[in-house]
UniProtKB/TrEMBL annotation:
Gene Ontology molecular function: any one: dioxygenase activity
Organismal lineage: Bacteria, Pseudomonadati, Pseudomonadota, Gammaproteobacteria, Pseudomonadales
Organism the protein comes from: Ectopseudomonas oleovorans
Domain VOC: 39-158
Protein name: Catechol 2,3-dioxygenase
UniProt keyword annotation of tRNA-binding present: no
Known cofactor(s): Fe(2+)
């Protein structure tokens, strides 16, 4: 409904636990390079039809609502959905155009890893969008940057743990600055409008 195309798989090739042996494994892979992201974490997508997208993801695919943003009329304008105990696996923001990407996010283990990623981003003269900072939404610690194709990427650590029986956390649009950028609480125009 949001204009995004998803491919669902019932099977996948087993590749092991992120680069360590299954018998007597080391604490972490010895050959991690760069930012050393350990997995894909989530994506944030923009599109219209949020209610229909919500129904598809919750009623058909089994996701649940972890966090949401409501406007002054009580209409949901952002929905953070989880299929696990992560803060979210996918999020959708209402936008008049279908099929837009805000960012993809990769998981790092610690805040120190996020700061190291910031150093690597700076060392390579990569365009930093925002951060390092913390979100109010999800409470994740983060930095955003643009890849050579112009797509926004995030490396992210921490964040809330959710369970399907938890009540969703609700934010209101009048507190959106705090929700997105907890430290300075100021909305950034580029962060809100640059989509691919």
């Amino acid at each position: 409904p949001s204009g995004h195309h998803f491919e669902l798989y019932a099977d996948k090739e087993y590749t092991g636990k992120w680069g360590v042996n299954e018998v007597n494994p080391e604490a972490w892979p010895r050959d991690l390079k760069g930012m050393a992201a350990v997995r894909f974490d989530h994506c944030l997508l923009y599109g219209d039809e949020l209610p229909a997208t919500y129904d598809l993801f919750t009623k058909v695919l089994g996701f649940y609502l972890a966090e949401q943003v409501l406007d002054e009329n009580g209409t949901r304008v952002a929905q953070f959905l989880s299929l696990s105990t992560k803060a979210h696996d996918v999020a959708f923001i209402h936008h008049p155009e279908k099929g837009r990407l805000h960012h993809v996010s990769f998981h790092l283990e610690t805040w120190e890893d996020v700061l190291r990623a910031a150093d690597l981003i700076s060392m390579t003269d990569t365009s930093i969008d925002i951060g390092p900072t913390r979100h109010g939404l999800t409470h994740g610690k983060t930095i955003y940057f643009f890849d050579p194709s112009g797509n926004r990427n995030e490396v992210f650590c921490g964040g809330d743990y959710n369970y399907p029986d938890h009540k969703p956390v609700t934010w209101t649009t009048d507190q959106l600055g705090k929700a997105i950028f907890y430290h300075d609480r100021i909305l950034n125009e580029r962060f809100m409008t640059v989509l691919t």
